[in-house]
Amino acid sequence: MRRMINGVRGSVLAAMISFGAVSIAHAGLANDVPSCYAANKIAAPQPQYDHLIYVLVDQTVALDPTLQRSVLDNLLPLLQAGTKFVVAEFSAFSQGHYLNVLHSGVIERPLSASAEGDVPMSRLRELHTCFQQQVIYARRLALGTTAQVLKTGSSSLDRSDIMMALKSVSSAVAQERVSDRVVFVVTDGLENSSVTTFYAHNAVRHINPGAELKRATEGALFGDFGGARVFVLGAAVMAAPDSGSRSQRNGYRDPATLMDLRRFWEGYFMRSNAKLIEFGTPALLEPVSW
Fold first, then answer.
1. I need a surface site. Which of 132, 225, 242, 274 has the fewest CB within 10 A?
2. Regarding predicted confidence, which is higher, 241 or 39?
3. 242 and 185 in contact (C-beta within 8 Å)?
């Protein structure tokens, strides 16, 4: 990953200069990747993308460098032509932290072979060059933003409204007219809100999935993801406490606790019109894919 980023740095800079810098004031509110079709005054094919990757990062989770690299390694292959990406962060509405879309962008689909025949050769070359720069720019933007959020993750934040954040973004995921929706959630999966908490005595609590799903129902915390596929990385990650049993101080998570945590989130996403494909505890055993 590091070699890839360093290798394209010069091209990324050229792309940023040619496209113009993204305004921070409007970042995430619209398409932060300038259009090659608009730049070359060529009518864009519709739709311009048919894949969506939504990255949602829990600010209350502090991942080690290996897991941080794994997040970026899983995201990179999905940043291809015909894809829209969204990078957002969340914790709870407190301590200056809240759900926030940082950047979103579209990597445009190229023209079909038949449509290219209607474009002058000189403009077509410029369009192809622009597409190459656009992919580099979009990857730089998505990977750089995600890496920055991961670096600022902290286990010192008191609250984590995971279900509320998921419900809030679900409608945006569902309304996209795409053939493939993937939601990539980087979180410990440990809800700690006014509705319920998955903690007890500075450790992961062994939850009852059915009882917790009932609380989610009573709190109206289910969303509608429009049939999205969901991947979770970082489940049950937390700093080992200074007190408690030896296993707790060593950060041990017993299999029964992890299995019930997965059962809860499987139930949550099923009731939110989504399918949990992989639940990394903490690493993914199956890579994120369409």
1. 242
2. 39
3. no
Phi-psi region of 287 (alpha: psi -120 to 50; beta: other; left: phi over 0): beta
Task: Tell me the C-alpha distance between 105 and 40, whole Å.
Answer: 18
For the ranges 2-11, 182-191, 229-238, 263-272, which has the lowest average pLDDT?
A: 2-11
d(CA 193, CA 123) in angstroms, rounded, equals 55
Domain boundaries, the chain: 2-279
pTM: predicted TM-score of the whole model, two decimal places? 0.87
Instruction: Give CA angle at 181 (101, 160), nearest 5°.
Output: 45
pLDDT of residue 4: 37
Q: Please check whether residue 218 is in contact with residue 263, taking contact to mean a CB–CB distance below 8 angstroms.
A: no
Q: Which strand ranges, in their side-by-side order, compose the sheet holding 51-58? A: 100-107, 83-90, 51-58, 180-186, 228-233, 274-279
Structure tokens at 166: 């998921």
